[in-house]
Amino acid sequence: MKDIGKxxxxxxxxxxxxPSDQMEGKDAPALSWLHExxxxxxxxxxxxxxxxxxxxxxxxxRESVRAYKDDSLSFAELSHTLWATQGVRKKGKxxxxxxxxxxxxxxxxxxxxxxxxxxxxxxxxxxxxPFEHAxxxxxxxxxxxxxxxxxxxxxxxxxxxxxxxxWVADVYRMYWRYGERGYRYLHLDAGHVCQNLYLxxxxxxxxxxxxxxxxxxxxxxxxxxxxxxxxVIYLAPLGKI
Length: 241
Ligand SMILES: Cc1cc2nc3c(=O)[nH]c(=O)nc-3n(C[C@H](O)[C@H](O)[C@H](O)COP(=O)(O)O)c2cc1C
Fold this sequence. Notes:
- By secondary structure, the protein is an alpha+beta fold.
- It has a single domain (35-240), classed as NADH Oxidase, CATH 3.40.109.10.
- Helices cover 30% and strands 20% of the residues.
- The chain contains seven helices and nine strands, in the order H-E-H-H-E-E-E-E-E-H-E-H-H-E-H-E.
- It has a seven-stranded antiparallel sheet, sandwiched between helices.
- Helix 2 crosses helix 6, helix 3 (75-86) runs antiparallel to helix 6 (182-203) and helix 5 crosses helix 6.
- The longest helix has 22 residues, at 182-203.
- It starts with a helix and ends with a strand.
- The site of flavin mononucleotide has 9 residues, from loops.
């Protein structure tokens, strides 16, 4: 497997790709996972006034932070964070635009959150519903916090932050248009999402850190994902500093 990276880059060059499912006329997948059942509405991001700072200052001050106070995040701050990282800004019939860019506007991520200390929310896992701007409870295993730290190769941040955002790639949403090359784009897209989180952290007097060092199998098992069609691509804790 020593040359797997080189083979991946070679195999995903345009000249080595066959026609994608979209080119072959197959139906596009849904824009987000369906949810039936209980939801928790989040406050309208347009009506929120969370700390405003100059973009230039946010860029200058941004840094990775791995220690947080044990203070809670407000519900409004959580709402703003989810909107800024994965919120929807325009919706058409077959395509939606969000607050971050995405290759071909495929937006192939779902956000699962581990809520530890957010006002008004019980501890546990939730999924962000971007089109409703709401939360849905997600099956939370007993001892989720220890499992999350263990799946993060012992990195303690998710056990100390107010909330941890876990981004899950839904491969076919990207693959449908780009085939194997779509895997490149999933990883590029994830960076944009997390960068917005870094900037929001500055705005909210919070700290965050991108986390890509984790045990894939453990992380996916913890969230009940198959690890192939749906897998954790990136995560980031967020807490007051
Ligand atoms: C793709 C990626 C993966 C990262 N994974 C981790 C991680 O698992 N754990 C961690 O503590 N920091 C992680 N980081 C944070 C980097 O260590 C950090 O960005 C770097 O040291 C530079 O520091 P700065 O962000 O404060 O400028 C990651 C950053 C990126 C962009």
